[in-house]
Amino acid sequence: MARVLVGVKRVIDYAVKIRVKPDKSGVVTDGVKHSMNPFDEIAVEEAVRMKEKKLASEVIAVSCGPAQSQETLRTALAMGADRAIHVEVVGAEYETMQPIHVAKILAKLSKDEKADIVIVGKQAIDDDSNQTAQMTAALLDWPQGTFASKVEKTDAGLTITREIDGGLETIKTKVPAVISADLRLNEPRYATLPNIMKAKKKTLKKMTAKDLGVDLAPRIKIVSVEDPPVRQAGSIVPDVDTLISKLKEGGHV
């Protein structure tokens, strides 16, 4: 049976209104509610379902980030993951951590933990990079099934239905493989109180990127983070002629 490694990221909660820092170096995170990236919740749910169907023997949740990332890992454990690994990244290194770094960490842990399947969310809702799964697959030289809306185990490996611009694409991959979860893959379960209590007793191992031989030096420099332009209010015009003249005034026609 397969061993599944699941990546989970602590992000600003989807319901929070994002505020840009005055110096435009990033967004305000202090005192702001955080939670597990929604696409990663779907990834955890899929891994746990694999275990429930006896397709997986163990589910290992991994998160890279500050001490608070342990709360995200405990949520994954409460959802049904067996154990967790916290790769602690703090301060300036965390501020500049990029998908390439996370991919290197996941690739190294996949080898160390002898994982057969890596599942991550298709993207994080904070940076929207949509790169980690693809980079992890490249580093491991494993096949990838990104934007998965359905995953089925076969004797030969996996059959994955992907959401693409033109509709749905079905691919077959061998195992080991990397999967990124799309929105319609499943409906994540809520962590029940008994499972939250059980999660406190599950193993949570702490390590650093240095322990894994991963250099966190940034490859990309963020020049500026800015709010999108404020949308101007619309107006009601009495007739088509007025509409045309207003469009001409605005240089639209």
UniProtKB/TrEMBL annotation:
Q: Which UniProt keywords apply?
A: Electron transport, Transport
From which source organism is this entry? Answer: Iphiclides podalirius (scarce swallowtail)
Q: Which CDD domains does the record match to this protein? A: ETF_beta
Cross-referenced Pfam families, in alphabetical order?
ETF (PF01012)
Q: How does it assemble?
A: Heterodimer composed of ETFA and ETFB. Identified in a complex that contains ETFA, ETFB and ETFRF1. Interacts with ACADM.
Q: What is this protein called?
A: Electron transfer flavoprotein subunit beta
**Location(s), subcellular:** Mitochondrion matrix
Q: Name the family the entry cites.
A: Belongs to the ETF beta-subunit/FixA family.
Q: Its domain of life?
A: Eukaryota
